[in-house]
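quick one, 101 residues, struct below
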Amino acid sequence: MGDLNKPGWNYRIIQVGNEEGAPWFEMAEVYYNDDGSIKTWCFTSPGGADVDELRDDLIAMFHDFIKHPVVLTEEELNVNQPEQGEQETGEDAKLEPACGA
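---
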């Protein structure tokens, strides 16, 4: 798992608004460029091919939750999240495929 300001990725808590505009919090995978800036992100939920993998995923999420308690908002991510599977192309492209693409 990546650390903040280093290449890689980690789980982060993202604050989003619900339909009524009240705060709502979601877990996200956040991927970083070599310079530590955010490359892309996607909402995620725990999963695994078996109970042990699910447990490991939950532990990793909890570890990152404790290690990186700063809550990000979608605006702070400074990335226009593409739809699942979409990708910007061309010289000025800043986004990689969405998670799971």
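Residues 8-77 form one domain.
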